[in-house]
User: What shape does this take?
Amino acid sequence: MSLPDTPFQHLDARFRRMVIDTAQVDRLYHGCRWAEGPVWLPATQELIWSDIPNNRLMRWSEGAGAGVFRQPSNFNNGNTLDREGRIVGCLHGGRAVVRTEHDGSITTLASHWQGKRLNSPNDVVVKSDGSIWFTDPDYGINSDYEGYQAESEIGACNVYRIDGDSGDISIVSSDLERPNGLAFSTDESRLYIADTGLTHRAGGPHHIRVFDVVDGVTLKGGEVFATIDPGLADGFRLDAHGNIWTSAGDGVHCYAPDGTLLGKILIPEVVSNVVFGGPRGNRLFITATTSLYAVYLAVNGAVRP
Assistant: This one.
């Protein structure tokens, strides 16, 4: 498998100011079954990501390379950091959202809705008020490949919010077929959520929708922001200018805040997710099927309020 000599595909003049044409995509690790959920840890200058079918979390740092961070991981999928730098993760196997404390212990934040078990939490973000927002499709209970096969107790795939003070859980969206990746706009006034229903239904959604955040606790709207072709918006993150860098079938697609597709980073595997990291936040780490990739950009990742 070879990387393209020119990984950047320019579709809009604005994209030229966002990438470094002489930069190359680095393949940092190979050997996953389905690489997902990258999160950058500034305190330790390392990347943590999920290898879901292999039931493990991986780690990578400059110089030390890659190794196992946690195994078994209870089929951990998406990851993010909370306001205290702790990893918040989505467990397919545990059907829960959990937090890894600084001493390594694990705290369960959400596992049930009105007495019924969650499906298989997929991706998660933390808002500046400490609330935690996560998607709960059924990918982890569809088979024993990325979790444990089971029937949905809730009977729906929802998006939830965990209150940062009380820990109360509420549904913020119930009209997506398979809610997947999600991210706040740079000012947290909007929430982008992917719907990857195409995985379950021919002609199903493969787009990102955008919702207005009302009073910091509920959502309204939900118009389609961008349709991903080829592939799906499995996971995405924003840069400091509000542009969205999302997974796709042929690499990473970059969308302007107005919904214009600006350009692509071509990757020879199906991409699942991305995160900005590195000492200056200008390195985009890319999880793609069996591998971890990275590329330096001319933009930096968004800094939370």
User: Anything to note?
Assistant: DSSP finds no helices and 27 strands in the chain. Residues 8-296 form a domain with the Neuraminidase fold (CATH 2.120.10.30).
